[in-house]
Amino acid sequence: MRIRATVAAASGAIALTTALTAPAAQAGEAVKPASALPVISKVSVNGGKDTVLGTTAPKTITLSVTASHASGIVDGWVLLWHGTDLDEGLDGVLVSEGGATCKNANVVTTATCSLTLTIDPRTDLPKNKLAGSWHILTGATAEDGSSTYYDSYATARVQRLSKLTVNAAPEPVKKGGTITVTGKLSRANWEDHAYHGYTGQPVKLQFRKKTSSTYTTVRTIRTNSTGTLKTTVKASVDGYWRYSFAGTSTTPAVTTAGDFVDVK
C-alpha cells in the first residue's frame, strides 16, 4: 500500500488517501500537459521562521503557496510530513483542518493561497524524533482545472522549545573575588510533556560591563548529564553575566537575560 497526498478540489480540503498504483509525483499528477500546469513560485511555513513548540500549548501558524496560471488560481494546499518517503517511511503528518483562502496579486493570473494550521504537541507530536526537518507537500489548482503538486517542495523545521537559566553569585562581590555562574539548559520532551536537561551542549558564558551595551564571550562550556552549567570567573568590574545557546536543528537558540553583579 502506498500513502499518497491528494486534494479534494471541490471543497479545498486536504485528505490523505491510500492508492495501490499511484506513481511518485515530482511536479504533479495533473490532467494537462506540463506546459499548461500552474507554476508555484513561493511556499511559506510560519512566515519562514522555525515552528517551536513546548510541552502542552498548541501553536497556530500560517501556511501559504503562491502560484500562477493563465486562467488564474482557484485553490492551493500545503501540508507538512515527516519521514523518509510518502510510501513506507511516513511517520508524521501535519494538516490544516480548513480549506485555503486565495487572494490575487496585482495580476489575476497569480494568487497566494493561505491556510491555518494548529499544532498540538500532545496529540500531533507524540515522539521526540519528530523534531527537526519536515517536508513541505504543496500544490495549486487553476481555474481551468489543471493542477500541480510537489511531494517535497522544500523543508521546514519543527523544534522542541528550549529554556536557559543563569545565576551569578555572590552579589555583591569583592574585586578580585570569585564569581560562580550557574545555570541550566532544558528543552521540551514531547513524550512525557515535561522539560529535561539538554546534555553535552556548548553554551557561551558572556559578560557586559555596566557601562557597555555589548556582550563579550568569556568562554564556552558544556552542559553536564542533567543539562546543568557551572563555571567560575574573577570579579573585576560591575556588569552583567549571561548564558547563550546557539541552538541545534531540533532545538532553538536561547539566551538568558543578564544577571548583574556589583563588584566592590
* Class based on secondary structure composition and strand pairing: mainly beta
Based on the coordinates given, report the CATH architecture of the largest domain.
Sandwich
Order of helices and strands: EEEEEEEEEEEEEEEEEEEE
- So what's the overall shape? elongated
Summarize model confidence as the mean pLDDT.
89
User: Gyration radius, to the nearest Å?
Assistant: 24 Å
Total count of domains = 2
Characterize the quaternary organization of these chains.
single chain
Helix content: under 10%
The CATH topology assignment of the largest domain is Immunoglobulin-like
Q: What proportion strand?
A: over 45%
Count of β-strands: 20
User: How many alpha or pi helices?
Assistant: 0
CATH C-level class of the largest domain is Mainly Beta
Characterise this structure.
By secondary structure, the protein is mainly β. The chain has 2 domains: about 1-160, Immunoglobulin-like (Sandwich), CATH 2.60.40; about 160-260, SOR catalytic domain (Immunoglobulin-like). The protein is built from no helices and 20 strands. The chain starts with a strand and ends with a strand. The relative contact order is 0.17. Mean pLDDT is about 90; it is low at about 1-30.
